[in-house]
């Protein structure tokens, strides 16, 4: 027992925590003992490219994760989704003790780095490593497996009801979204707790707890005006032209929309005699001349909110601003919902309290709630309306979504311990 206690924490901590049970001490020791195995698995996952549109690559990462989960006693299903032009999702189920809480674990197989990216390989430097998806989210999946292996070795996995959904298109969801997220939403309705293994947020050297994620909603503004010789612009007969009117509407967004927890952005803008944005939303084209009043303008962007009520309110304000278009012009705004919001509910706060109880017993510092403006949208939001949840159980990293992505390998240890003990405690409670 003393040997296990001495192995308990890799990070600096207080004396061996007296509140840990023998099984929990064994879990902590297993995470430490298997650390290099976890790092080796992370390297194999990272070295397999799984950019969202590299469908074979995503499937191969799914196969690697499936093998690990089958070894832990999970029933694994690969759900292909050719209808959405994405690889599919991995779904794994472990049946535990009847009548106890059902845990949903969420992660994703894909990365933002496609097969033609020059950023392809895992490179370790002591307790850090760079590589595509090393933190987001392959590091998170490794933490998940480290925790589950520790639970198996301590005998707590057998009694725990767990469903795992690893999506293959978190970074760029397939369409239609209703089909792309149907399995995850259904799993959320079955679950009592959702735990998202995306990255751990760290501020000023302090681990943070995440109980909320904001939504992501796209919009497209289309403005038309009367074309003619530029000498007639601003006259009653011709009005302001499409570009000036689009600029006026966007300026009104800036002055009238701001409120707490909201951000909004114009990402692409074009105007002229003709103007268009391609179906991908990434490229715009326009034609015109300096002496012609522009007949068309188009802009697209997004806005992010902390609740679905806020989404509805902001959308209504944007529609009202656009409806006030000036004479001689017409304006329309269309919305494309993306990720819903995960509001900071009382249930989510209670789960963070449970995690902080684990931290106290491990001798780790309390994790304050993270400002949701500092997290992007994510898959747990699709189940947030049905089940309480926590975000950020994966590894800490920096430079995510860039060729400078670097994962803090040491966080596999403390995150694996936190997750294993939290899941073991939640998993024995009655529904």
UniProtKB/TrEMBL annotation:
Protein's UniProt name: M20/M25/M40 family metallo-hydrolase
Cofactor: Zn(2+)
Gene Ontology MF terms: hydrolase activity; metal ion binding
Keywords: Hydrolase, Metal-binding, Zinc
Matching InterPro entries: ArgE/DapE_CS, Bact_exopeptidase_dim_dom, Peptidase_M20, Peptidase_M20_dimer, Peptidase_M20A
Coiled-coil boundaries: none
Segments forming domain Peptidase M20 dimerisation: 211-328
Pfam family name, one: M20_dimer
